[in-house]
Amino acid sequence: MSKKSILAIVLIALVSLFAATVSASQPSEMSFQPVAVERVPAPIVQDKGATGVANYIVQLNDAPLALYNGGVAGLAATSAEAAGTFDIKSAAAVAYRAHLIDAQNSLVSAAAAALGRNVTAGAQYQYALNAVVLALTPEEAASVATLNGVKLLFRERIEQMVTDSSPEWIGANNVWDGSATGTPSLGEGTVIAVLDSGINFDHPSFADPGPVDGYDFPAPPQYFGVCDPGDPQYNPAYTCNDKLIGAYSFVSEAVTPEDSDGHGSHTASTAAGNFADALLEAPTIIVEAQVKGVAPHAHVMAMDVCVDSCPGASILSAIDKVVELNGIYPGLIDTINFSISGSPLAWGDPTEEAFLAATATGVFVSASAGNSGPGPSTAAHRSPWLTSVAAATQARTYETGIVNMSGGTNPPADMVGRAITAGYGPEMIVYAGDYDNGDPDPEQCLNPFPPGTWSGEIVVCDRGSIARVDKGANVLAGGAGGFVLANAASNGESTNADPHFLPAAHIGYADAQVLEAWLAGGSGHMATIPEATRTVNPANGDNTAGFSSRGPNDTFDTIIPDIMGPGVDIYAAVADGVLPPDGVDEFDFLSGTSMSSPHDAGVSLLLKSLHPDWSPPQIQSAIMTTAVYVGPTKEDNVTPADPFDMGAGRMQVDWAAQAGLVLDESISN
After folding, report:
1. Catalytic residue among 62, 166, 263, 609
2. Average pLDDT of every residue of the chain
3. Which of 61, 330, 432, 502 ranks highest by number of CB atoms within 10 Å?
């Protein structure tokens, strides 16, 4: 018998059996009984074992204004994609926002009834996200998750905040003078919103006119935030100008958007700071340089979302404000810089979803990949609608080293290191691990050494666990006269030129092994630390920083990070922490993907200035398809970098400005 015949017999038997079963169980009259359907609770995103009261971002089902494509009876679409333009003053937007507010207020009332207590929304969002912020315990969050209209609950994450020649390293000077494009551009007509720790209002990097080139910035449609008499945050103590066109504070602990940390001023000036003459009075040396942002003629708007840390609700308020402003003044804000940590999620993270709404209003979002490298799958901000930026070295550095070593057995050859300090020596050189500071790992110099431990010796410490400059302070407390910071294997050859508290040199892992082996035998070890010298050499550049977070993306199938940029020893503005001008211009060297992200943001401003019709995805594609991908190395400065280190490669804006093909993408996709 054939297989087809057997199959036919089986099918006939099954049909007969089914018919008999139905016939045997069929009642004489059809009857229906109502069945109670229990609502499936909305997902809750929080750390396992979370306890206590915390803010929960409670998202509702309907889309926010920037992403609403229609679908609610009687309410027309409001997104730019569906309506043609995003205008929050339109009748459709006003009506739909009222609908969202009604639903949010109803949810808050329902939550109060379900929990049997008074519930107040800490914040409500309608433009970039449809959500309210409620203070809940995990048990209460589980109850709220069962209420009608709730899409997701996200326990608030508290995020962390994660230049003189670096613009030239990525080709910005060739765009400034027009040699790459035929049309000069320094970012004229563009605006960047910097979500960070505030801004140093009286700094020359944000002055109008520019202090070096005299550029007179055109007036914005108005000043914003604390500089707008019609805004609830208005404070006459603050003075904006046509460069720094506004500032907001969304952190309850911060009385003002004056920079409380220095991080925000540094990132803002790296992306869009004026040409400015800088003087760094380091503890042992004075450094002079001219600094400038990648897009020095762009306008800046500061949004303070961080004090010591960066609450998720504050971040969402800032993004919501960006979307709102672009709904009042279409195209006002072109770029967001977000040098702040984040989760690996895209969908299901309110911050990342809010960035999608910002993108829908024409905003290019640049974000730090994170400082958790070099381990795999450590990169944050994986959402395909924003650009996650890794960090590498640039051509400029400040070199010191360890030279003229003698004593012991077979003294090593001279070693090149990095630091911004005066010279010192010749002097005895010793290993911190041979001395006691009350810590089980004295070689790491995690605690101050007792006074009198040394009498001017150069002390070698292993890198790790605490800030690099703090290790120098700890040996200085014990009487050291010089300091060598020796990389561990995980740091490779990635070194930093820090302004240490005493003459210093930061050396890579290979030299550290040789140096410590020499110090382990014999006696009378002597060495000299030369004074730092500024060097500009292409061989110094494109070495992936050891701290830079890496791919692969284990959340969904895209490459992460997206791009790499300068993020080591970036010289830019910092804060003075006071509102009245004090006559001191503050600059400092900082390292991190916090510093590489604003380079990418500045690149986007130059491209937007040259190509006003390019969308955020088109700008992203121009940056990524023209990146330098041959030459960058891993942290060992030898092995070629791969896409999990650098994404598409190291950004090169003069090439991006000439991109012959750019790729667009819809928000719906």
Report:
1. 263
2. 91
3. 432
Q: Does the pLDDT at position 165 exceed 80? A: no
What residue type is 173 in one-letter code? N
| Predicted confidence (pLDDT) at residue 24 exceeds the cutoff of 80 | no
435, 580 contact by CB (below 8 A): no
Domain 166-394+542-656, second-level architecture: 3-Layer(aba) Sandwich (3.40)
Q: What's the chain's Rg over C-alpha atoms?
A: 29
Phi, psi of 273 (to 5 degrees): -70, 150
Whole-angstrom distance, CA of residue 644 vs CA of residue 426: 43
- pTM of the complete model: 0.87
Q: Any long-range contacts for 182-187 (C-beta under 8 Å, 24+ apart)?
A: 183/610, 185/606, 185/609, 185/610, 185/657, 186/215, 186/295, 186/296, 186/297, 186/298, 186/606, 186/609, 187/272, 187/294, 187/295, 187/296, 187/297, 187/298, 187/602, 187/605, 187/606, 187/609
Centre a 10 Å sphere on the Cβ of residue 293 and count the other Cβ atoms it contains. Answer: 34
Segments making up each domain of the chain, as ranges: 44-156, 166-394+542-656, 396-536
Count other C-beta atoms under 10 Å from residue 538's C-beta: 10
**263 belongs to the catalytic site:** yes
- Single-letter amino acid, residue 43: P
Res 20 pLDDT > 70: no
Assigned token pair, 477: 């407390």
Helix (H, G, I), strand (E, B) or coil at 534: strand
Task: Tell me how many degrees the CA angle 167-172-175 measures, rounded to the nearest 5.
Answer: 165
Assess whether the previous peptide bond of 442 is cis (omega < 30° from 0).
Answer: no
The predicted model gives 171-183 an average pLDDT of 93
Which pLDDT score is estimated for 470?
95
Exactly one of 62, 87, 164, 196 is catalytic; name it: 196
In angstroms, the CA 635 to CA 431 distance is 25
Residue 183 reports pLDDT greater than 60: yes
Q: Is position 594 annotated as part of the catalytic site? A: yes
Tens of pLDDT, residues 311-351: 999 999 999 999 999 999 999 999 999 999 998 999 999 99
Catalytic residue selected from 249, 594, 604, 621: 594
196 catalytic, yes or no? yes
Report the C-alpha gap between 573 and 591 in whole angstroms.
Answer: 13
Residue 437 in 3-state DSSP? coil
